[in-house]
Amino acid sequence: MEYDTSQLCDTYADLVDVVDPIFSNYGGRHSFGGKVVTIKCFEGTGLIEKIVEADGTSKVLVIDGGGSTRRALIDSNIAQIAANNGWEGIVCYGSVRDVDALEDIELGIQGLVSIPVGANDNEFGETDIAINFGGVTILPDDHIYVDNTGIILSPEPLDIE
Questions:
Q1: What angle do CA 152, 62, 143 make, to 5 degrees?
Q2: Which of 17, 67, 121, 154 has the CA that lies 20 to 30 A from 6?
Q3: What would the DSSP string read from start to end of 34-54?
């Protein structure tokens, strides 16, 4: 589904929070949205890999990677697994890699920057917790809407018809 975050902000100004404009689009989908699933981890992909193996229908994985630009949390393997399992997208407060391959995967991916160095595969971190970055607090089960203009959050699903 296509989302227009500008229109959603105009329509639901009092309901939505806007994430600071610090992200870039890396995925094959430029617009995506869904129910939030949160992860907090630092330079380790094990927990991310475990989560994207689950059914992600109508869900967006939001990762608080501490803003690290030293090691990529999202690569083409993780993105492909997420796409295969129906995830709408990933918002990563951290780095990505394999950017040319990510463009060919039918998945929305927003990240801070790209770097060729991958993260280790440890499973340290937490899931389904409140996370904070980009000037907002993101809760599990919030609803997130993303396009090339920006990222917005709502505690309830927005009527986009």
A1: 40
A2: 67
A3: EEEEEEE-SSB-HHHHHHHTS
Angstrom distance (rounded) from CA 50 to CA 154: 26
Q: DSSP readout, 90-132?
A: EEEEEEE--HHHHTTSSSEEEEEEE-SPBPB----SEESS-EE
Retrieve residue 33's tokens.
Answer: 């949205």
Q: Are strands 89-96 and 59-64 parallel, antiparallel or unpaired?
A: parallel
Q: What are the boundaries of each domain within the chain?
A: 5-154
The DSSP letter of residue 87 is B
Residue 113, both tokens: 């920057």
Fold entry, domain 5-154: Glucose Oxidase; domain 1 (3.50.30)
Structure tokens given for 158: 């927005």
* Band of pLDDT at residue 146, cut at 50, 70 and 90: very high
Residue 160: pLDDT band by 50, 70, 90 thresholds?
A: confident
- Per cent of the chain over pLDDT 70 is 100
Q: What is the mean pLDDT of the chain?
A: 97
